[in-house]
Amino acid sequence: MRRVLTLLGSALLAAGTLPAVLPVSSASAADCAATWKAPTAYSGGAVVSYNGHNWAAKWWTQNQAPGSDSVWTDRGTCGGTTTPPEPGEFVVSEAQFEQMFPGRNSFYTYRGLTAAMASFPAFANTGSDTIKKQEAAAFLANVNHETGGLVHIVEQNTDNYPHYCDASQPYGCPAGRAAYYGRGPIQLSWNFNYKAAGDALGIDLLNNPWLVERDAAVSWKSALWYWMTQNGPGTMTPHDAMVNSRGFGETIRSINGGLECNGGNPGQVQSRVNAYKKFTQLLGVPTGDNLTC
């Protein structure tokens, strides 16, 4: 599946690090500022949101992800009520996960997912219990569609493999033109997405994209990175779409809306919606509005 950043022609993420897992309050959080965008230049005092926190720039900055104490000041949690997850805690139990994916590939483990979540503490952990479960269901429904029920680790159509190299990028495709095909739970693809994800995760995925299909922890983290930080062809991250009650349809738009939404492929959209309905029912929460795109 094609994955696109919001500004394909702009500079992409440069070297950066994920923020440490920070202590967060169980009190009501402030409203989230505009989401941080890597290509955007921010002056001192500018406030952005990233991974469920608001951050204030200490001085002019560009391509430096919030979480770096030398550049950003943490203003605290935003967008609802966030409580720190206990190790391994997830609103989806392991038994429910197994019900969702009875034929899953052993590569995709529940423990691998919950471990990866420590790098993104706001995931399925922002807002009310209903919103947390809706976000978890939305993520897993899209994952279900992308991987055929957590069965496929790599994109099945090998004819597509050479198409995911944007040679116009200054860093090119050092792993080879056919190396940046879809991998992992969200089927991360394109050289610029591997570069951006690797920079954010502190892993050289541009030169070694195969880690996403060989290392389960990296695979889950790549999916959560996209879910939490990327608008794709949409106007917001899938995380923001769910915690701000914009609807499951907006997550589809952010993941593959350029090909599926606005009548592009209604069958694919419905497949995602069907999984979301099934998973929200299993978790005992309503689906919310705006299911399609």
UniProtKB/TrEMBL annotation:
One of its GO terms (molecular function) is carbohydrate binding. It comes from the Bacteria. GO terms for cellular component: extracellular region. One of its GO terms (biological process) is cell wall macromolecule catabolic process. SUPFAM superfamilies: Carbohydrate binding domain (SSF51055), Lysozyme-like (SSF53955). Residues 33-75 form the Chitin-binding type-3 domain. Pfam families: CBM_5_12, Glyco_hydro_19. Disulfide bonds join 165-173, 261-293. This is Chitinase. Keywords: Disulfide bond, Hydrolase, Plant defense, Signal. The active site is at residue 146. It comes from Actinomadura rubrisoli. Residues 1-29 form the signal peptide. SMART domains: ChtBD3.
